[in-house]
């Protein structure tokens, strides 16, 4: 009978995470008034609808009242497009949010805040 050497993998190496490390968990305080803290999520890959062929939706959730606002948009909208949509449909009626929590990348969120502030104070 022939001896076959089977390599043994160290358990630490086998269970090691190879992906990106997660960020720190930050506690988000409960808001004290409506639209103080909102969650924003972009839902993409929807079938085109409307005369402008909207194919995405922007969902805004108010953490205080647990209410939702749904806005039609396009998948390739920029931060400037999103800012104009937010201004015309939400902020002009309710006021500016204190915090926006989003799953978009930091560059998009930063550009959104910059555009909003530039629009309001310039």
Automatic annotation (TrEMBL):
Q: Which GO terms describe its molecular function?
A: nucleic acid binding
Name it: Integrase catalytic domain-containing protein
Record-linked InterPro entries: Retrovirus_Pol_polyprotein, RNaseH-like_sf, RNaseH_sf
């Amino acid at each position: 009978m022939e001896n076959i050497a089977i390599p043994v993998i160290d358990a630490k190496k086998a269970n090691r995470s190879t992906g990106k490390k997660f960020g720190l968990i930050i506690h988000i305080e409960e808001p004290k008034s409506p639209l103080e803290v909102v969650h924003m999520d972009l839902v993409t890959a929807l079938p085109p609808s409307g005369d402008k062929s909207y194919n995405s939706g922007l969902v805004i959730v108010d953490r205080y009242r647990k209410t939702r606002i749904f806005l039609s948009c396009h998948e390739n909208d920029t931060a400037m497009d999103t800012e104009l949509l937010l201004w015309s449909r939400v902020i002009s009626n309710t006021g500016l949010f204190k915090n926006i929590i989003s799953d978009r990348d930091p560059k998009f969120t930063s550009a959104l805040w910059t555009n909003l502030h530039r629009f309001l104070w310039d």
